[in-house]
Design goal:
Layout (H helix, E strand, L loop, with lengths): L7 H39 L3 H8 L1 H4 L5 H14 L3 E6 L5 E4 L14 H7 L8 E3 L7 E11 L2 E10 L2 H11 L2 H44 L4 H4 L13 H58 L5 H33 L6 E5 H18 L3 E6 L5 E5 H18 L5 E9 L2 E8 L33 H11 L5 E5 L3 E11 L2
């Protein structure tokens, strides 16, 4: 992946310098042109009537031009008195008839009359620039006036304002020591301003560089906060500085990612342990099945009918345990993967409790256990998934029967409180120690005082129940005391049928 060679501050600095130089160049150019335009406008306005005064005051021009040599001498004399001006006499076609310059300096033979006619109009827009006879493409401000012989237009007096000598003097002044010193001061001030701006940019971008370096370090460490060496800096969320708020958000993100990574590692470790334990649990019924089926296959007819039936019963029991274990594994996998859909409907809670309890009445009686349903809210309705709720109740009652000794009792209670119905499955069994209560909802965890029976228990039931209750927007809670029994509770929102 291509990455820029310059850091953000360097790119910002280069952009600033280039932008500053471009703006400065445009400003200097525009300022120079504006200054020249204002100077030309003011000078042309000041000398606008110069040509007309010369025409009206000079006898050679006032009565018409007949002697071009005499007029040339006059122009030369005028130029000596006013070296800022150059004088030209043009005929009606714009051809130059005589002038004040030295021979060889004038390279043009004619002048475009359009600017002259524009200047002679009432209220002309200044500055108006005309052709410079000493240059092929230069244009200069001028003063002009028509020259008449009676009523006949004989030509035009064309006076260049700021002639070649004036331009030469201006150029020399620009190269003078004072002007150069002033230019150096301007350049030094500009460079100082640029340097100050670069330092200011450095100050503003320093926190962003620190934040970027921390991000790179954190990413290079594999998003491990403890192993990255990233120090959580005291960024301020309430600051008006966007970088401070960004840094504060980055700290939150670091903590959140670190917490998620730890949870993922813990979950991965638990999955490995769970997979190893489940593999062992699956291997036991499979080994039993294999052994008895091989025995039936090898001995064949030598086995009597009673023994054959006993072998078949054992195989059937192992198949039942195997299927139950696989079903629980798949159910837990679907719940953790978020692939379970709910089919909610409204129903009377008491009826479901009595139906589920009825399935375990015979089993409870065989163990000498009393199973009671105490529903204070007989007509209470809830909106939930009946199948998922029945699955939870079935697991809780099965566990209660398994851990309750003979002559014990199991109570299924429903308590109405505000808009909720709280369901409790309470037994008088062996109970669970306080230090183990926080672990019983973990997959494969079995309390140290669990009762063993002929069935295989993978320790997934309560983990499945907890996830099912989360899908039903509730939470399965437990309280217990060793030797006195255990109570599981959850609450559902009561609705009006």
């Amino acid at each position: 992946m291509w990455r820029p060679k310059l850091c953000f501050y360097q790119r910002l600095s280069v952009s600033l310098v280039l932008g500053f130089l471009v703006i400065l160049s445009v400003f200097v150019l525009a300022s120079s042109r504006l200054q020249d335009s204002m100077k030309d406008e003011s000078e042309q306005m000041l000398h606008l009537d110069l040509a007309s005064h010369l025409v009206s005051d000079n006898p050679l021009l006032k009565t018409g031009v007949y002697d071009y040599d005499a007029l040339g001498n006059l122009f030369h004399t005028l130029m000596i008195l006013g070296p800022n001006f150059e004088f030209y006499f043009l005929d009606t076609q714009g051809n130059i008839k005589t002038y004040s310059a030295k021979k060889g300096e004038v390279i043009k033979k004619s002048i475009d009359l359009a600017p002259i006619l524009s200047l002679l109009e009432p209220n002309p827009t200044l500055p108006v620039r005309g052709d410079d006879p000493k240059s092929e493409n230069k244009h200069k401000i001028f003063s002009a006036a028509p020259v008449y012989n009676g009523e006949l237009l004989q030509g035009y007096l064309y006076v260049i304002i700021g002639g070649a000598r004036y331009d030469s003097i201006v150029e020399n002044l620009k190269r003078s020591e004072g002007v150069q010193t002033f230019a150096m001061i301007i350049v030094a001030a500009t460079l100082f301003l640029l340097f100050a701006l670069l330092l200011l940019f450095r100050f503003f971008t320093a926190p962003l560089k620190i934040l970027s370096d921390d991000m790179d370090t954190f990413r290079a460490s594999g998003f491990d906060l403890d192993g990255s060496g990233v120090k959580l800096r005291p960024w301020r969320n309430e600051s008006r500085n966007e970088v401070q708020r960004l840094g504060f958000s980055f700290n939150d993100m670091l903590n959140h990612i670190d917490e998620q990574m730890k949870k993922l590692k813990q979950t991965d470790n638990e999955r490995r342990i769970l997979l190893a334990d489940l593999s062992h649990d699956l291997r036991t019924p499979l080994a039993n099945l294999q052994g008895y089926i091989e025995t039936l296959s090898l001995k064949g007819s030598s086995i009597n009918e009673d023994e054959r039936q006993r072998f078949m019963d054992i195989c059937e029991k192992n198949l039942f345990n195997l299927k139950r274990l696989i079903d629980q594994i798949f159910e837990l996998a679907y719940l953790e993967g978020g692939h379970v859909t709910l089919k909610k409907e409204s129903f009377m809670l008491a009826e479901l409790l009595h139906d589920v309890a009825a399935k375990f009445t015979m089993n409870a009686q065989n163990k000498g256990i009393t199973l009671n349903v105490n529903a204070a809210a007989q007509n209470g309705y809830v909106h939930a998934d009946i199948g998922k709720l029945e699955r939870v109740l079935t697991n809780l009652i099965e566990n209660a029967i398994r851990h309750t000794p003979e002559n014990g009792h199991i109570d299924i209670n429903v308590v109405e409180a505000d808009k909720y119905l709280t369901i409790e499955v309470k037994d008088s069994g062996v109970g669970i120690s306080e230090r183990e209560l926080n672990h019983i909802f973990k997959a494969r965890y079995q309390a140290s005082n669990s009762k063993e029976d002929s069935a295989i228990h993978a320790g997934l039931g309560l983990a499945i129940c907890q996830k099912l209750m989360a899908l039903l927007d509730s939470k399965l809670e437990v309280s217990s005391e060793l030797g006195k029994g255990t109570s599981f509770r959850f609450s559902l929102t009561q609705i009006t049928p």
